[in-house]
């Protein structure tokens, strides 16, 4: 029987490295290209790539791709800066693509 008292975690689909907690989900209503994505307030065991400006669906943002720290899989990106006032809430938060993460410890 699983321990229901511990945190519900998401892991890298490739190597099962823990990358975030279910409790850190800000929104499940995001898109990454044609794929569903989750917005997290925090992530762990990730490495940030170089920052770059990207024109996304919601406007121009400075972002850095995020990779699994164990296997190097690209998992999503981190919002470093939002240029539009209505998008400022995303700054410092992380997008993880749903198909790149799996539920672990549930």
UniProtKB/TrEMBL annotation:
Pfam families: Yippee-Mis18. Residues 8-105 form the Yippee domain. One of its GO terms (molecular function) is metal ion binding. Coiled coil: none annotated. InterPro entries: Yippee, Yippee/Mis18/Cereblon, Yippee_fam. Keywords: Metal-binding, Zinc. PANTHER family: PROTEIN YIPPEE-LIKE CG15309-RELATED. Belongs to the yippee family. This is Protein yippee-like. It comes from Castanea mollissima.
